[in-house]
Each structure stands twice: as C-alpha cells, then as structure tokens.
Amino acid sequence: DTLVNQIAAGEVIERPASVVKELVENALDAGARRVDIDLEEGGVRLVRVRDDGLGIPPDELPLAVSRHATSKIASLDDLEVVATLGFRGEALPSIASVSRFVLSSRRVGAEHGASLQVDGGRVGQVAPRAHPQGTTVEVRDLFYNVPARRKFLRAERTELGHIEEWLRSLALARPEVELRVSHNGKPSRRYRGGGEERLDFDDGAARLVETLGEAFAQAALRVEHATSPRPAEDGREAAPALRLHGWIAQPTYSRASADQQYLYVNGRAVRDRSVAHAVKQAYADVLFHGRQPAYVLFLELDPARVDVNVHPAKHEVRFRDARMVHDFVYRALHDALSATRA
Ligand code: ADP
Ligand code: MG
C-alpha cells in the first residue's frame, strides 16, 4: 500500500508547493477563515498548515490518511495504470508515504483533540493531543525515503518561490480568507482576510494591492461582462451563459513577460492558451501594445460545459465551446479597454 501511495505521490506531489496546495485546499474545503503556513528550508524540511476549519474527529483520522488500495498495481512498472486514476482522496496518503507526517485536529464542538503520525507510509496510533478547533498537518523531510525524487528538488529560494507564487494565485481567488506565511521562523507574507475591521474591503480590490502591489492596482481597469444563454436556432449553435470579471492593467503597467496573468475558471486557477490569446489579442488590437498585459480574470460558466479533470495537477481545462469562450473573452476585453480610449 505504501508503494501505491508513493506512486500516486509521484504523479501529483512534485515539490513542496504541491504539498502546500493540497493542504491549503483541504483547509478551505473544511471552511477555514484563517490558514497559517509555516515553512522551513523552502518547505523541504517542513510544511505545516494549520486551519480553523471544522476539524476531524479522532476516529476519522486513520480514514483521512488511507486510500482504496488497488490490487492491479504490484510494482513501479504499472505506473501507466496509475496515471489514469484520479487523485480524489489520495492527497494525504500520498504525502504521508513520502514524508514524516503528523495530522492533528479537534472537531468543532469536541472537547479533545487527537493526532496521528505516519512515517514514510507507516501509520501509527491515534493519540490524544491538545489542539484548538481545526486541523494542523505537519509534513517534514519531503521525499526523505525516495532519494530519486528528492534529488529533483531545487534550492530553497526556488522552492519557496513556487510556494509563494501558488499562494498569491490562491489569495487572489479567495480574498475573504486570511493567509499567514512564515519561513525559517520569520513571518514572510500576510494576506489579510475580510474581517469587520476592513470596511474598505471592496470585492477583492484590497487583496489586489496585497498580492500584486499598489502599481498594479493603480493601473487596473475593471472588467465585467456577461452574456445570457441562447438556445440553438436557425442553424446557430446554442450558447452558454458566460461571465468574465476582474481586472486588467493598462499599458502603463504592461510587462515584458507573461508573469502576471491570472485566470480562474469557476474559481479554480487554470492555464488556458486560447483564453490567454484572446486577452492578449484584444489588448494589442485596442491599445496597439506589443507587451504582455497583466490581469486577474475570473471566468464563470456552467460547470457541465468545462472539463477540469484533464490532468489532476496541471490546471488545464477543456471547454465544450472553446471558440465561443475565446470570442466572448475577446469581446469582454475589447469593450473594457475601448472604454478607456473614448
Ligand atoms: P480529498 O481532499 O480529495 O478528500 P485528501 O487526501 O486531501 O482527499 O483528504 C482526505 C480527507 O481528510 C478529506 O476528505 C477530509 O475528510 C479530511 N481532511 C483533510 N484535511 C482536512 C482539514 N484540513 N480539515 C478537515 N478535514 C480534512
Ligand atoms: Mg484534498
């Protein structure tokens, strides 16, 4: 079973940033309003994620770190088989199979907390442990038992950079959640949540300053564009309801590289060449500008019309109406940018 978990880990747990991603997404799934992320040595030595979510009852801790074993896989030669399986319910067991892992939690309303240790896939016993409401997952010495993978890890700065970039992308999508990061014992990032003390908290605009900075926010142009669904008629295809909202920076803040292009589809950060092309094309057509636009854009559409499971870790999507989505995004940006030239 440890072998199966290690193979699964090989598919999706590439580096400390993948661990952070899986753990923070679990925290958000549990309704956390605040997530603390403590890192050491770029996350290689330690990733610890603590949340104030619902928590896990003691008797469910073993469940959280176990998966359905498949008898089809006996050795690493069967890797191709694994590649086709999903990753649902596999993150914790996978991570725990390639690290020194501790899961601690106290369920909302429960009097006592508990924890469970897993060492390179060897699951220990549930033990009582004091813990505030919520969950802490501690992942030490990633890949300590898989030297072949450990040697692919990069310098501390590089691994930290991957983590910070992913957190920035998440922070943009979830402005209501407070995220606090420390590295080697020092506070390194803080994204404030939407508490009462932030009366100015305007639909993510404050988070925009925190994530991409004052200069981006100053140059940012609001995008808000929607279409109604249209049934098929007169030989024309049916069109889904689409909404695009967010910000694009004006050319005063254009970039030489595509490093600040954040696209979310139904709240998930994704990469999509066709949508990126549509934005760039509108930018170039309206503003006659050859540089890279910086943007944060949220596309929303019927989940049935987009496939997000193309690859579990790579954030690619497939649109049922790819051409329509491209043209819609082009039109949305074209309108928003044209308004500034009037
Ligand atoms: P998945 O998220 O796909 O269900 P995971 O392996 O990431 O699989 O997590 C397994 C399970 O452990 C979750 O379904 C959830 O029940 C529980 N869990 C993990 N992390 C947390 C957390 N931070 N708070 C509450 N429950 C959690
Ligand atoms: Mg998960």
From TrEMBL:
The gene is mutL. This protein is involved in the repair of mismatches in DNA. It is required for dam-dependent methyl-directed DNA mismatch repair. May act as a 'molecular matchmaker', a protein that promotes the formation of a stable complex between two or more DNA-binding proteins in an ATP-dependent manner without itself being part of a final effector complex. It comes from Luteimonas colneyensis. The keyword Translocase does not apply. Keywords: DNA damage, DNA repair, Endonuclease, Hydrolase, Nuclease. The keyword DNA damage applies. This is DNA mismatch repair protein MutL. GO terms for molecular function: endonuclease activity. Residues 208-338 form the DNA mismatch repair protein S5 domain. Belongs to the DNA mismatch repair MutL/HexB family.
